[in-house]
Amino acid sequence: MNKTNAKILVADDDDSIRLSFKLLLKKEGLEAEIVENGKKALSLLEKSKFDMAFLDLKMPEMGGIELLKIIAEKYPKIVVVIITGFGTINNAVEAMKHGATDFIQKPFLPDDIRVLLKKYLTKPKAIRKSTPKELQFYRDGQVETIIGLSPLMTEVYDLVYKVAPTDSTVLITGDTGTGKELIAKAIHFNSHRKNNPFLAVDCCSLVETLFESELFGHVKGSFTGATATKHGSFELANGGTFFFDEIGNISLNIQAKILRAIQEKEIKRVGDTQTIKVDVRVIAATNKDLQKAVEDGTFREDLFYRLSVIPIHLPSVREREGDIFPLAEYFLEKYNQKRKKMLVGFNKDVKEVFSKYHWPGNVRELENVIERAVVIEDSKFISLSSLPANIRNLKNKIKSSDPNIKSLTDLEKEHIISVLEQTNWNRSKSARLLGIDRKTLYDKLKRYKIEK
Predict the structure, then answer these.
(1) Domain CATH number, residue 267
(2) 73 vs 96, higher pLDDT
(3) In this predicted structure, which of 60-64, 89-93, 368-372, 442-446 has the lowest mean pLDDT?
(4) Residue 73 half-sphere exposure, CB side, CA atoms within 13 Å?
(5) Which residue, of 366, 382, 400, is where some domain finishes?
(6) What stretches of 340-437 show up as alpha helix (H) in DSSP?
(7) The pTM is what?
(8) How many domains does the structure of the chain reveal?
(9) Angle between the 408-422 and 438-448 helix axes, to the nearest 10 degrees?
(10) Can you point out the beta strands (E) in 271-394?
(11) Residues 78 and 56 in one domain
(12) In angstroms, rounded to a whole number, what is the distance separating the alpha carbons of residues 312 and 170?
Protein backbone atom coordinates (compact mmCIF):
# COMPACT_ATOMS: atom_id res chain seq x y z
CA MET A 1 0.00 0.00 0.00
CA ASN A 2 1.47 3.29 -1.08
CA LYS A 3 0.94 6.14 1.34
CA THR A 4 0.82 8.79 -1.40
CA ASN A 5 -2.28 7.40 -3.13
CA ALA A 6 -4.10 5.99 -0.11
CA LYS A 7 -7.67 7.05 0.56
CA ILE A 8 -8.86 7.65 4.13
CA LEU A 9 -12.33 7.55 5.66
CA VAL A 10 -13.00 9.38 8.94
CA ALA A 11 -16.27 9.15 10.89
CA ASP A 12 -16.59 11.19 14.10
CA ASP A 13 -19.41 13.31 15.50
CA ASP A 14 -16.99 15.79 17.11
CA ASP A 15 -16.57 18.91 14.93
CA SER A 16 -13.07 19.63 16.26
CA ILE A 17 -11.91 16.08 15.57
CA ARG A 18 -13.18 16.21 11.99
CA LEU A 19 -11.47 19.56 11.42
CA SER A 20 -8.20 18.24 12.84
CA PHE A 21 -8.30 15.26 10.49
CA LYS A 22 -9.17 17.45 7.52
CA LEU A 23 -6.18 19.74 8.07
CA LEU A 24 -3.76 16.92 8.90
CA LEU A 25 -4.69 14.62 6.00
CA LYS A 26 -4.58 17.51 3.54
CA LYS A 27 -1.12 18.42 4.80
CA GLU A 28 -0.02 14.80 4.39
CA GLY A 29 -1.28 14.81 0.80
CA LEU A 30 -3.89 12.12 1.41
CA GLU A 31 -7.36 11.94 -0.14
CA ALA A 32 -10.01 11.77 2.57
CA GLU A 33 -13.74 11.63 3.16
CA ILE A 34 -14.77 12.97 6.57
CA VAL A 35 -18.31 12.49 7.91
CA GLU A 36 -20.14 12.84 11.23
CA ASN A 37 -21.80 9.43 11.63
CA GLY A 38 -21.63 5.77 10.73
CA LYS A 39 -24.53 5.78 8.28
CA LYS A 40 -22.87 8.39 6.07
CA ALA A 41 -19.60 6.47 6.29
CA LEU A 42 -21.36 3.27 5.19
CA SER A 43 -22.88 5.08 2.22
CA LEU A 44 -19.39 6.22 1.14
CA LEU A 45 -18.00 2.71 1.57
CA GLU A 46 -20.59 1.41 -0.88
CA LYS A 47 -19.50 3.94 -3.52
CA SER A 48 -15.72 4.28 -3.09
CA LYS A 49 -12.66 2.21 -2.23
CA PHE A 50 -10.81 3.12 0.98
CA ASP A 51 -7.48 1.93 2.37
CA MET A 52 -7.86 3.08 5.97
CA ALA A 53 -10.70 4.19 8.23
CA PHE A 54 -10.77 6.08 11.54
CA LEU A 55 -14.07 5.39 13.31
CA ASP A 56 -15.34 7.03 16.49
CA LEU A 57 -16.55 4.43 18.95
CA LYS A 58 -19.67 6.41 19.94
CA MET A 59 -21.68 8.14 17.18
CA PRO A 60 -25.38 8.85 16.63
CA GLU A 61 -27.42 6.54 14.35
CA MET A 62 -24.58 4.03 13.86
CA GLY A 63 -21.62 3.62 16.20
CA GLY A 64 -18.09 2.51 15.45
CA ILE A 65 -18.49 -1.12 16.53
CA GLU A 66 -21.60 -1.62 14.39
CA LEU A 67 -19.87 -0.09 11.37
CA LEU A 68 -16.70 -2.05 12.11
CA LYS A 69 -18.59 -5.36 11.90
CA ILE A 70 -19.89 -4.42 8.45
CA ILE A 71 -16.42 -3.40 7.25
CA ALA A 72 -14.87 -6.63 8.56
CA GLU A 73 -17.44 -8.65 6.62
CA LYS A 74 -17.70 -6.67 3.37
CA TYR A 75 -14.44 -4.73 3.15
CA PRO A 76 -11.84 -6.82 5.07
CA LYS A 77 -8.81 -5.17 3.43
CA ILE A 78 -9.53 -1.78 5.01
CA VAL A 79 -7.29 -0.98 7.98
CA VAL A 80 -9.61 0.21 10.76
CA VAL A 81 -8.53 2.35 13.71
CA ILE A 82 -11.13 2.94 16.43
CA ILE A 83 -11.24 6.38 18.09
CA THR A 84 -12.37 6.20 21.70
CA GLY A 85 -12.81 8.88 24.31
CA PHE A 86 -13.36 6.32 27.01
CA GLY A 87 -9.96 4.71 27.01
CA THR A 88 -11.03 1.45 28.61
CA ILE A 89 -9.41 -1.86 27.87
CA ASN A 90 -12.77 -3.53 27.35
CA ASN A 91 -13.76 -1.12 24.58
CA ALA A 92 -10.41 -1.57 22.83
CA VAL A 93 -10.50 -5.35 23.16
CA GLU A 94 -14.10 -5.49 21.91
CA ALA A 95 -13.11 -3.50 18.85
CA MET A 96 -10.07 -5.71 18.19
CA LYS A 97 -12.24 -8.81 18.47
CA HIS A 98 -14.51 -7.46 15.75
CA GLY A 99 -11.67 -6.72 13.33
CA ALA A 100 -10.11 -3.38 14.31
CA THR A 101 -6.43 -3.10 13.55
CA ASP A 102 -5.65 -0.53 16.25
CA PHE A 103 -7.23 2.10 18.46
CA ILE A 104 -6.41 5.62 19.59
CA GLN A 105 -7.65 7.47 22.68
CA LYS A 106 -8.92 11.04 22.84
CA PRO A 107 -7.39 13.52 23.25
CA PHE A 108 -4.64 12.79 20.73
CA LEU A 109 -2.02 14.84 18.92
CA PRO A 110 -1.46 15.14 15.14
CA ASP A 111 1.76 13.17 15.55
CA ASP A 112 -0.22 10.27 17.02
CA ILE A 113 -2.20 10.07 13.77
CA ARG A 114 0.96 10.41 11.69
CA VAL A 115 2.45 7.42 13.51
CA LEU A 116 -0.60 5.31 12.61
CA LEU A 117 -0.55 6.46 8.99
CA LYS A 118 3.13 5.61 8.67
CA LYS A 119 2.66 2.29 10.42
CA TYR A 120 -0.22 1.01 8.31
CA LEU A 121 0.05 2.80 4.97
CA THR A 122 3.73 2.20 4.30
CA LYS A 123 3.82 -1.49 5.19
CA PRO A 124 3.30 -4.10 2.48
CA LYS A 125 0.98 -5.94 4.84
CA ALA A 126 -0.80 -4.12 7.63
CA ILE A 127 -1.48 -6.08 10.77
CA ARG A 128 -5.15 -6.58 11.29
CA LYS A 129 -6.96 -8.35 14.04
CA SER A 130 -6.16 -11.99 13.33
CA THR A 131 -8.73 -14.47 12.19
CA PRO A 132 -9.57 -17.10 14.81
CA LYS A 133 -7.03 -19.49 13.33
CA GLU A 134 -3.99 -17.31 13.97
CA LEU A 135 -2.39 -14.66 16.13
CA GLN A 136 -0.09 -12.05 14.60
CA PHE A 137 2.34 -9.44 15.78
CA TYR A 138 4.66 -7.05 13.99
CA ARG A 139 8.36 -7.06 14.89
CA ASP A 140 11.52 -5.86 13.19
CA GLY A 141 9.73 -5.16 9.92
CA GLN A 142 8.18 -8.62 9.76
CA VAL A 143 4.78 -10.08 10.57
CA GLU A 144 5.08 -13.12 12.84
CA THR A 145 2.19 -15.54 12.96
CA ILE A 146 1.09 -18.14 15.50
CA ILE A 147 -1.10 -20.77 13.85
CA GLY A 148 -3.91 -22.79 15.41
CA LEU A 149 -7.48 -23.75 14.51
CA SER A 150 -8.39 -25.65 17.66
CA PRO A 151 -10.73 -24.14 20.29
CA LEU A 152 -7.93 -24.45 22.87
CA MET A 153 -5.72 -22.13 20.81
CA THR A 154 -8.44 -19.63 19.90
CA GLU A 155 -9.07 -19.28 23.64
CA VAL A 156 -5.37 -18.46 24.04
CA TYR A 157 -5.56 -15.82 21.29
CA ASP A 158 -8.59 -14.23 22.94
CA LEU A 159 -6.71 -14.02 26.24
CA VAL A 160 -3.68 -12.48 24.53
CA TYR A 161 -5.79 -9.73 22.95
CA LYS A 162 -7.47 -9.02 26.27
CA VAL A 163 -4.32 -8.92 28.39
CA ALA A 164 -1.95 -7.23 25.89
CA PRO A 165 -3.19 -3.64 26.51
CA THR A 166 -2.75 -4.05 30.28
CA ASP A 167 0.36 -4.12 32.47
CA SER A 168 -0.73 -7.25 34.37
CA THR A 169 1.84 -9.97 34.99
CA VAL A 170 1.25 -13.12 32.96
CA LEU A 171 2.25 -16.72 33.69
CA ILE A 172 2.41 -18.93 30.59
CA THR A 173 2.42 -22.68 31.23
CA GLY A 174 2.83 -25.59 28.85
CA ASP A 175 5.16 -28.35 27.73
CA THR A 176 8.54 -27.64 26.16
CA GLY A 177 8.21 -26.57 22.55
CA THR A 178 4.62 -25.29 22.72
CA GLY A 179 5.63 -21.70 21.91
CA LYS A 180 5.58 -19.96 25.28
CA GLU A 181 8.10 -17.28 24.28
CA LEU A 182 6.18 -16.56 21.07
CA ILE A 183 3.03 -15.92 23.11
CA ALA A 184 5.03 -13.62 25.41
CA LYS A 185 6.23 -11.68 22.36
CA ALA A 186 2.69 -11.52 20.98
CA ILE A 187 1.56 -9.94 24.24
CA HIS A 188 4.42 -7.42 24.23
CA PHE A 189 4.18 -6.43 20.55
CA ASN A 190 0.41 -5.98 20.77
CA SER A 191 0.79 -3.71 23.82
CA HIS A 192 1.54 -0.04 24.37
CA ARG A 193 5.11 -1.12 25.26
CA LYS A 194 5.78 -2.52 21.77
CA ASN A 195 8.29 0.19 20.85
CA ASN A 196 10.31 -0.45 24.02
CA PRO A 197 12.60 -3.43 24.78
CA PHE A 198 11.50 -7.04 25.04
CA LEU A 199 14.25 -8.85 26.96
CA ALA A 200 14.30 -12.49 27.98
CA VAL A 201 16.37 -14.66 30.27
CA ASP A 202 16.52 -18.44 30.17
CA CYS A 203 16.42 -19.38 33.84
CA CYS A 204 18.00 -22.77 33.02
CA SER A 205 21.09 -21.33 31.35
CA LEU A 206 22.69 -19.28 34.14
CA VAL A 207 24.41 -20.57 37.25
CA GLU A 208 23.21 -19.25 40.61
CA THR A 209 26.28 -17.08 41.22
CA LEU A 210 25.86 -15.19 37.96
CA PHE A 211 22.08 -14.98 37.84
CA GLU A 212 21.67 -11.98 40.12
CA SER A 213 24.37 -10.01 38.34
CA GLU A 214 22.88 -10.81 34.93
CA LEU A 215 19.43 -9.83 36.11
CA PHE A 216 20.09 -6.74 38.22
CA GLY A 217 23.65 -5.75 37.29
CA HIS A 218 26.59 -4.99 39.60
CA VAL A 219 28.90 -2.16 40.57
CA LYS A 220 32.61 -2.09 39.95
CA GLY A 221 34.56 -4.06 42.57
CA SER A 222 31.51 -5.82 44.03
CA PHE A 223 33.14 -9.21 43.46
CA THR A 224 36.23 -10.71 41.84
CA GLY A 225 36.13 -9.96 38.13
CA ALA A 226 33.73 -7.03 38.44
CA THR A 227 36.05 -4.59 36.70
CA ALA A 228 33.27 -2.20 35.65
CA THR A 229 29.73 -1.32 36.60
CA LYS A 230 27.22 -3.37 34.63
CA HIS A 231 23.57 -2.65 33.87
CA GLY A 232 21.38 -5.70 34.45
CA SER A 233 18.85 -7.06 31.95
CA PHE A 234 15.94 -6.00 34.14
CA GLU A 235 17.14 -2.40 34.14
CA LEU A 236 17.74 -2.46 30.37
CA ALA A 237 14.13 -3.57 29.87
CA ASN A 238 12.85 -0.35 31.51
CA GLY A 239 9.67 0.79 29.79
CA GLY A 240 9.26 -2.58 28.12
CA THR A 241 8.70 -6.23 28.98
CA PHE A 242 10.92 -8.76 30.74
CA PHE A 243 10.36 -12.45 30.06
CA PHE A 244 11.48 -15.13 32.54
CA ASP A 245 11.66 -18.39 30.58
CA GLU A 246 11.36 -21.53 32.76
CA ILE A 247 11.09 -19.50 35.95
CA GLY A 248 10.46 -22.67 37.95
CA ASN A 249 14.22 -23.36 37.90
CA ILE A 250 15.40 -20.38 39.94
CA SER A 251 16.45 -20.56 43.59
CA LEU A 252 14.43 -19.26 46.53
CA ASN A 253 17.03 -16.54 47.09
CA ILE A 254 16.60 -15.10 43.58
CA GLN A 255 12.83 -15.57 43.80
CA ALA A 256 12.74 -13.19 46.76
CA LYS A 257 14.60 -10.51 44.79
CA ILE A 258 12.39 -10.92 41.74
CA LEU A 259 9.32 -10.58 43.97
CA ARG A 260 10.66 -7.32 45.39
CA ALA A 261 11.43 -5.98 41.89
CA ILE A 262 7.86 -6.70 40.78
CA GLN A 263 6.17 -5.38 43.92
CA GLU A 264 8.29 -2.30 44.58
CA LYS A 265 9.21 -1.58 40.94
CA GLU A 266 12.81 -1.11 41.96
CA ILE A 267 16.06 -3.08 41.85
CA LYS A 268 19.45 -2.94 43.49
CA ARG A 269 22.67 -3.84 41.68
CA VAL A 270 24.98 -6.35 43.31
CA GLY A 271 27.27 -4.48 45.70
CA ASP A 272 25.27 -1.24 45.53
CA THR A 273 23.39 0.53 48.32
CA GLN A 274 21.19 2.60 46.03
CA THR A 275 17.92 1.38 44.52
CA ILE A 276 16.91 2.05 40.91
CA LYS A 277 13.29 2.58 39.91
CA VAL A 278 12.16 0.50 36.94
CA ASP A 279 8.95 0.32 34.91
CA VAL A 280 8.90 -3.23 33.57
CA ARG A 281 6.07 -5.58 32.72
CA VAL A 282 6.86 -9.15 33.76
CA ILE A 283 5.84 -12.26 31.83
CA ALA A 284 7.01 -15.66 33.04
CA ALA A 285 6.81 -19.15 31.59
CA THR A 286 7.32 -22.65 32.91
CA ASN A 287 6.80 -26.28 31.95
CA LYS A 288 6.61 -27.20 35.64
CA ASP A 289 3.62 -27.39 37.97
CA LEU A 290 4.37 -24.34 40.11
CA GLN A 291 1.46 -25.06 42.45
CA LYS A 292 3.10 -28.38 43.31
CA ALA A 293 6.45 -26.60 43.68
CA VAL A 294 4.79 -24.24 46.18
CA GLU A 295 3.48 -27.23 48.12
CA ASP A 296 6.95 -28.81 48.02
CA GLY A 297 8.54 -25.60 49.32
CA THR A 298 10.72 -25.02 46.24
CA PHE A 299 8.78 -22.03 44.93
CA ARG A 300 7.53 -19.03 46.90
CA GLU A 301 3.76 -18.87 47.21
CA ASP A 302 3.71 -15.06 47.19
CA LEU A 303 5.75 -14.95 43.98
CA PHE A 304 3.52 -17.57 42.37
CA TYR A 305 0.40 -15.49 42.99
CA ARG A 306 2.18 -12.32 41.93
CA LEU A 307 3.17 -13.92 38.61
CA SER A 308 -0.10 -15.67 37.84
CA VAL A 309 -2.41 -12.65 37.78
CA ILE A 310 -3.26 -13.73 34.22
CA PRO A 311 -2.53 -17.45 33.65
CA ILE A 312 -2.33 -18.69 30.06
CA HIS A 313 -1.94 -22.41 29.38
CA LEU A 314 -0.59 -23.61 26.02
CA PRO A 315 -1.84 -27.05 24.98
CA SER A 316 0.53 -29.64 23.56
CA VAL A 317 0.30 -30.58 19.89
CA ARG A 318 -1.31 -33.92 20.80
CA GLU A 319 -4.12 -31.95 22.50
CA ARG A 320 -4.73 -29.96 19.31
CA GLU A 321 -4.58 -32.62 16.59
CA GLY A 322 -6.54 -30.46 14.16
CA ASP A 323 -3.68 -27.94 14.14
CA ILE A 324 -0.98 -30.34 12.92
CA PHE A 325 -1.59 -29.84 9.20
CA PRO A 326 -2.22 -26.06 9.30
CA LEU A 327 1.04 -25.77 11.24
CA ALA A 328 2.86 -28.08 8.81
CA GLU A 329 1.62 -26.07 5.81
CA TYR A 330 2.63 -22.80 7.48
CA PHE A 331 6.16 -24.09 8.15
CA LEU A 332 6.36 -25.50 4.61
CA GLU A 333 5.63 -22.05 3.18
CA LYS A 334 8.07 -20.45 5.60
CA TYR A 335 10.98 -22.73 4.68
CA ASN A 336 10.13 -22.74 0.99
CA GLN A 337 10.77 -19.02 1.05
CA LYS A 338 13.83 -19.29 3.27
CA ARG A 339 15.44 -22.11 1.26
CA LYS A 340 14.18 -20.83 -2.12
CA LYS A 341 12.35 -24.07 -2.91
CA MET A 342 8.88 -24.77 -4.35
CA LEU A 343 7.49 -27.81 -2.54
CA VAL A 344 3.71 -27.93 -2.88
CA GLY A 345 2.59 -30.26 -0.10
CA PHE A 346 2.81 -33.64 1.63
CA ASN A 347 2.16 -37.09 0.23
CA LYS A 348 -0.46 -39.42 1.70
CA ASP A 349 1.98 -41.47 3.81
CA VAL A 350 3.41 -38.34 5.43
CA LYS A 351 -0.05 -37.08 6.34
CA GLU A 352 -0.84 -40.45 7.90
CA VAL A 353 2.26 -40.62 10.10
CA PHE A 354 1.93 -36.96 11.09
CA SER A 355 -1.57 -37.66 12.41
CA LYS A 356 -0.39 -40.73 14.37
CA TYR A 357 2.91 -39.40 15.73
CA HIS A 358 2.93 -38.27 19.38
CA TRP A 359 5.01 -35.06 18.81
CA PRO A 360 6.76 -35.01 22.20
CA GLY A 361 8.70 -31.90 21.13
CA ASN A 362 5.46 -30.13 20.18
CA VAL A 363 5.44 -27.21 17.72
CA ARG A 364 9.22 -26.81 17.88
CA GLU A 365 9.73 -30.44 16.83
CA LEU A 366 7.19 -30.13 14.01
CA GLU A 367 8.94 -27.03 12.69
CA ASN A 368 12.34 -28.72 12.81
CA VAL A 369 10.95 -31.76 10.97
CA ILE A 370 9.50 -29.56 8.20
CA GLU A 371 12.71 -27.53 7.84
CA ARG A 372 14.72 -30.74 7.52
CA ALA A 373 12.31 -32.14 4.96
CA VAL A 374 12.37 -28.97 2.83
CA VAL A 375 16.18 -29.09 2.73
CA ILE A 376 16.32 -32.81 1.84
CA GLU A 377 13.31 -33.37 -0.44
CA ASP A 378 13.97 -33.39 -4.19
CA SER A 379 10.41 -33.88 -5.46
CA LYS A 380 7.42 -31.54 -5.31
CA PHE A 381 5.87 -33.30 -2.31
CA ILE A 382 7.45 -34.07 1.05
CA SER A 383 7.79 -37.85 1.27
CA LEU A 384 8.56 -40.33 4.05
CA SER A 385 12.20 -40.49 2.98
CA SER A 386 12.66 -36.84 4.01
CA LEU A 387 11.47 -37.45 7.58
CA PRO A 388 13.60 -38.48 10.58
CA ALA A 389 13.83 -42.25 11.11
CA ASN A 390 11.72 -42.29 14.30
CA ILE A 391 8.78 -40.72 12.43
CA ARG A 392 9.41 -42.49 9.11
CA ASN A 393 9.39 -45.91 10.77
CA LEU A 394 6.00 -45.21 12.30
CA LYS A 395 4.49 -46.14 8.92
CA ASN A 396 5.45 -49.80 9.43
CA LYS A 397 3.96 -49.80 12.93
CA ILE A 398 0.71 -48.37 11.58
CA LYS A 399 0.48 -51.18 9.01
CA SER A 400 1.09 -53.92 11.55
CA SER A 401 -1.02 -52.47 14.34
CA ASP A 402 -4.21 -54.03 15.62
CA PRO A 403 -7.17 -51.93 14.36
CA ASN A 404 -8.82 -52.44 17.74
CA ILE A 405 -6.01 -50.71 19.61
CA LYS A 406 -7.25 -47.50 21.20
CA SER A 407 -5.79 -44.12 20.35
CA LEU A 408 -3.68 -42.13 22.81
CA THR A 409 -6.57 -39.69 23.12
CA ASP A 410 -9.01 -42.43 24.14
CA LEU A 411 -6.50 -43.92 26.57
CA GLU A 412 -5.84 -40.53 28.15
CA LYS A 413 -9.56 -39.85 28.56
CA GLU A 414 -10.12 -43.24 30.20
CA HIS A 415 -7.12 -42.77 32.51
CA ILE A 416 -8.34 -39.33 33.64
CA ILE A 417 -11.81 -40.71 34.43
CA SER A 418 -10.23 -43.61 36.34
CA VAL A 419 -8.11 -41.27 38.49
CA LEU A 420 -11.09 -38.97 39.14
CA GLU A 421 -13.15 -41.93 40.31
CA GLN A 422 -10.33 -43.08 42.60
CA THR A 423 -10.22 -39.64 44.25
CA ASN A 424 -14.00 -39.29 44.44
CA TRP A 425 -13.72 -36.54 41.79
CA ASN A 426 -11.33 -34.39 43.83
CA ARG A 427 -9.79 -32.38 41.01
CA SER A 428 -6.80 -31.01 42.95
CA LYS A 429 -5.79 -34.49 44.13
CA SER A 430 -6.43 -35.95 40.68
CA ALA A 431 -4.21 -33.32 39.05
CA ARG A 432 -1.36 -34.20 41.44
CA LEU A 433 -1.74 -37.92 40.74
CA LEU A 434 -1.76 -37.25 37.00
CA GLY A 435 1.36 -35.06 37.30
CA ILE A 436 -0.29 -31.97 35.81
CA ASP A 437 -1.54 -28.67 37.21
CA ARG A 438 -5.22 -28.00 37.85
CA LYS A 439 -5.57 -25.66 34.86
CA THR A 440 -4.34 -28.41 32.52
CA LEU A 441 -6.76 -30.87 34.08
CA TYR A 442 -9.67 -28.45 33.65
CA ASP A 443 -8.70 -27.99 29.99
CA LYS A 444 -8.70 -31.76 29.45
CA LEU A 445 -12.05 -32.18 31.19
CA LYS A 446 -13.51 -29.54 28.92
CA ARG A 447 -11.92 -31.00 25.81
CA TYR A 448 -13.04 -34.58 26.52
CA LYS A 449 -16.43 -33.42 27.87
CA ILE A 450 -15.84 -35.30 31.12
CA GLU A 451 -18.47 -34.62 33.76
CA LYS A 452 -19.29 -36.35 37.02
Answers:
(1) 3.40.50.300
(2) 73
(3) 89-93
(4) 8
(5) 400
(6) 348-356, 362-376, 389-392, 394-400, 408-422, 427-434
(7) 0.61
(8) 4
(9) 120
(10) 276-277, 281-286, 310-313, 345-346, 381-382
(11) yes
(12) 7
